[in-house]
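User: Hey, my collaborator sent me this sequence without any context and asked if I could get a structure. I don't really work with proteins. Can you help?
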Amino acid sequence: MTHSPSAAPRFGVNYTPSEGWFHHWLDFDLDAVRADLDSIAALGLDHVRVFPLWPLFQPNRTLIRPRAVEQLAALVDAAAERGLDVAVDGLQGHLSSFDFLPAWTQTWHRRNLFTDPDVLDGQAAYLRTLAAALDDRPNFLGMTLGNEIDQFSGDPHPDPDRITPDQAAHWLRRMLAACEDGAPGRFHLHAAYDAAWYLDDHPFTPGHAARIGAATAVHSWVFNGTAQRYGTDSVAVGRHAAYLVELSKAWADDPHRPVWLQEVGAPAPHIPADRAAEFTRTTVAAALDCPDLWGITWWCSHDVDRALADFPELEYSLGLLTNDRKPKPAGRALADVVAAARTTWVRPAPRSTALVVDLPEEVTARSSCGPGGAHYEAFMRLAADGARPAVVLAARAADPAHLAARGITELVRPEDLRASLSG
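Assistant: No problem. I've predicted the 3D structure and written it out in C-alpha cell form, which is a compact way to encode the shape of the chain:
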C-alpha cells in the first residue's frame, strides 16, 4: 500500500479543515469535509494526513468516545471515495503553536506524558483503538504517534515533561506497539520537530528518528533560523528539506530506510507570497533528488480562517488553498510538479559524495548540524557547488559495506572543505 521502491514518491497534504480549523471535530460536518477533500484531490494529490484532537476523542483516561471514532472513520471513507489514502496522527498534542492535552494529564492531575504508567496505559489504549477502527479500510496508511510530540519533552516548551533519551525510546516503542496491535503491518511511525536533529541535549535523538518505526519522518521549516540567516532565495532555504532527508540517513541502520518529508511549507514573511510558488518548486525538486524518499506531504491544505484568534501570523497563510477552497500559487505549483512527476519521475542516482559528520552514534551535542553549524554549512557549500551530498556518520565512514550499500564513493569533511575554499 505504501509504494514499491521503483514507484514515484507519494504526494499529499496535511489536512487543515477550511471551516473551523481542527475545532471542526466539535461540530463535525461531513459535507464540508467532502468539499475540502474534493479541492485537495483536484490538485492531483494521493493522500492526506489528518489530526484528531486528543482531548476531544479521549476526554477521560478510560473514555474513548465512540462517536468521535466513527467520525474519523467517516472522514477516511470520504477520502477513499476521492482516491485519497489517509495517515492518522494520534496524540494531538501540539498543532500550530497550540497544545491540546486532556485534563487527566494536567494541573490537579498532572502526570508525565512519557513515563507515568497510567498515562501510558491510556495513550496506548487510545492509539490501539484508532488503529483498530481503521484497520479494515484499504486506504488507511497507518498511524503517526502524534504531531511533534517531542516538543513536550524539553526546552523551549514553557512547561515540559522532562525525560531521558532511554525513556523517550521506551515510550516510542510502547506506543508503536499499540498501533501495531490495532492495525498490524501498516505504516506506523513517529514524528519529531527539528530539535531532534539540531538541539543539543534534546531527549528525542536522531537515532530514535532514524531507527524506530516504519520510516523516518522529517519536518522542514525554514523559519527555524535558516531563512533569517541565509535569505529567501539562498541555497540553504531551497535545500533545507533535502538536507534533513539526507541528514536523517546518517543515523539509519537500514541504508535504504524510507524517509517521509511529512511537513514542509512556505511560511510568510520568511517566504514572501510572491515567492511561494518558486519555493515550492525548488523544495520539491531538491527532495525528489534524494534516494529512498517515501513521499512529500505539504503543510497545509487550507488557510486558517482569520476569524480565529491568536495564531502566529505565519500560520494563517500556509494553505495550498484558500478558505473558499481556491488554489493559491503554491497549490498550483505543487499540482504542476505532481502531474509531471507522475509521468517523468526517474529514481535518483545514489549520492556518491558524502559529508562526514563526526558525532557519536547517540549524539547529544548536535547543534553543528543546524543552521549556522559547521556540518550544515558544509553541506550547503557542497550543494552550491553543484554536488549532490549525502551524509554519513564518522563511525560508518570506514565501513566499506555501508558505503557501498549507499553508493558512496567520496568522503568530504567540513575542515577539508573549508581548506579547499580558502585555498
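In plain terms: The chain has two domains: 10-344, 353-422. You can pass these C-alpha cells on to your collaborator as they are.
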